[in-house]
Specification:
With about 230 residues, the chain is mainly alpha-helical. Helices cover about 70% and strands about 5% of the residues. α5 runs antiparallel to α8 and α7 packs antiparallel against α8.
Length: about 230
Amino acid sequence: MGADGIGLLATLLALVSVVLGFIALSDEVRENETQHVDERVLLSLRRPDNPAEPVGPLWLAEAARDVTALGSVSVLALMVCAVSGFLVLVRRWRTLGLVVGSTVGGALLNSLLKGLFARPRPTVVPHLTWVLTESFPSGHAMLSAIVYLTLGALLAQLTERRRLKAYLVAVALLLTLLIGVTRVYLGVHYPTDVLGGWMAGLGWALLTALLARAAKRRSPELQEEARGETTPS
């Protein structure tokens, strides 16, 4: 089996593992098996004498709000639009379709899952930022995983150096991790909400990668785009 076949097998195994993990976690959440641990984690991040005050220095809560905004629908939409504009300018239409399709499909899936589980937001501590939708899975965690991992993988295709590829993927993973952690710190999500969002987002990103791989095999034009051989007019 060649390197390409090993990569495909690894992606399939990762996708199956993530899907099974999400199913197991969602069953626990639905049965309230995680509620006690979730609430203890949230309380541990607040001052014992005043649950409205988070632990840590005064600037940390403001920094958390700044970081968590990187996973908001507005910021992610602006980022996807900016990347889409670039892809339009260089006439990489098929790559544009993959980016937009992955993002829009992931957003629809997140809305579907939130409505399906309809988990209320945490009430054990006051929220430190505004929220509007249901709690499980975390939209910030899921959508940031989809967008940043997709864009990281897209940028990684532009270089042949493994160190740069690893750096781009690591930055995407770090952003996703920090955004999810801030949702818990701000008291607007349980830890299992964020974990579920990461799982669902990673699963969707892996599925998109598999579909993109299959499309590239069938489309010579997409292969040219991936190699950067499309010449803009």
